[in-house]
Specification:
The protein is mainly β and 331 residues long. The protein is built from 1 helix and 23 strands. The protein has one helix at 127-133; strands at residues 8-16, 30-40, 45-55, 65-72, 75-80, 83-85, 88-97, 116-126, 142-153, 162-174, 177-181, 185-190, 193-203, 206-215, 220-229, 241-244, 247-256, 267-281, 286-298, 301-311, 314-317, 320-323, 328-330. The chain has a 23-stranded antiparallel beta sheet that branches. A hairpin with a 4-residue loop joins strand 18 and strand 19 (286-298).
């Protein structure tokens, strides 16, 4: 009968996942060991699962890890011990009441309902070691922060997951200096509303503020950038460029929230203001003073609405357009 007791035990050791018939990145290859104990009855089974992971490479994305999972009274939970990753030490927790899930009617008849929740923490994250593992160690920018992510999903309203990701104590490091966030960087998804809450980065004499909001009715992401860049930021540009005086950069844009995203669909306005400033490039030798540009982007066409500058001691007014698709335009 369905209420008859059931007991089962399974164990495996050093299972090489590289032998599985799927393509796996070299940095993710390793050995998996574990055990599974099942008890209870067919209508109300319980169980305990232990999984250990040991990477095959010294350069790894995820290092040695151990997970404990349990199924008791219709509730499934997972807890990790400290997991070593290329970016730092992480921890993970997951809880899933089974009462509202579309399971067989005769299984866990008294299981509790409610939201499925998961949290992940990665304090002291550093992007540098992770970029090295991914073969991107030529990038000179390193990000340091304390990461936390939370997920809540209600099976009764599956189309409305809630996601919250926070980066606290955010620092962007470059050999020329450091940008520091004045507060946490917060990204959220709640009731179909995606939002990057306003975040401000300061350092190198500069201030950068960015935000974004997804409008589900219009199906677009509205973004906003406000930046005042000091001459010191030029050291982060991979071309020989000398800048005198602060540059103001403002951008407002709309991005369609589509899977088949194309740059051609972006709409926006970009303003660059370097009045009373000076830029000098060595090769070719160009000196630009008092630059101001207002440009719009619509349907894959960038149009310079207005612009002016003093170039090599000559005054120029700038206008024209550029078709991103064809790569042709007139200035």
């Amino acid at each position: 009968t369905m209420s008859a007791p059931v007991t089962a035990d399974f164990q495996w050791r050093d299972l090489d996942i590289s032998l599985l018939p799927i393509e796996i990145p070299e940095a993710s290859v390793g050995l998996v060991s574990g055990s599974l104990h099942v008890d209870g009855s067919l209508t109300n089974p319980t169980g305990d699962l232990e999984i250990s992971w040991l990477p095959a490479e010294t350069n790894f994305l995820v290092g040695e890890a151990h997970l404990d999972a349990s199924l008791t009274n219709g509730r499934f939970s997972v807890v990790s011990e400290q997991i070593e990753t290329a970016g730092g030490s992480a921890m993970f927790e997951h809880t899933a009441p089974l009462g509202d899930l579309p399971l067989l009617e005769w299984m866990w008849p008294n299981a509790p309902g409610g939201k499925i929740r998961a949290t992940a923490d990665l304090p002291g994250f550093q992007s540098g070691p992770m970029m090295e593992v991914l073969g991107l160690d030529d990038i000179q920018v390193n990000v340091e922060t304390d990461l936390r992510a939370e997920l809540a999903w209600d099976p009764l309203t599956p189309e409305k997951p809630r996601v919250l990701a926070e980066a606290n104590n955010l620092r962007v490091l470059h050999p020329s200096g450091t940008l520091i966030a004045e507060g946490p960087l917060v990204v959220s998804l709640d009731d179909d509303r995606f939002q990057l809450k306003p975040v401000v980065l300061v350092g190198l004499g500069s201030r950068i503020e960015a935000s974004a909001v997804f409008d589900p009715d219009a199906g677009v992401v509205d973004g906003r950038l406000r930046a005042t860049l000091a001459p010191e930021v030029s050291t982060m540009v991979p071309i020989p460029l000398e800048i005198e005086g602060p540059i103001t950069v403002n951008a407002d844009f709309e991005v369609p929230a589509e899977r088949n995203f194309s740059l051609m669909a972006v709409q926006g306005v970009l303003t660059i203001d370097h009045r009373n400033g000076r830029m000098v490039m060595r090769d070719p030798p160009v000196e630009i003073r008092d630059l101001t540009v207002v440009a719009s982007l619509d349907d894959g066409v960038m149009e310079i609405v207005e612009g002016s500058a003093e170039v090599n001691r000559g005054r120029v007014d700038v206008a024209g357009g550029w078709d991103l698709k064809s790569g042709q335009g007139v200035v």
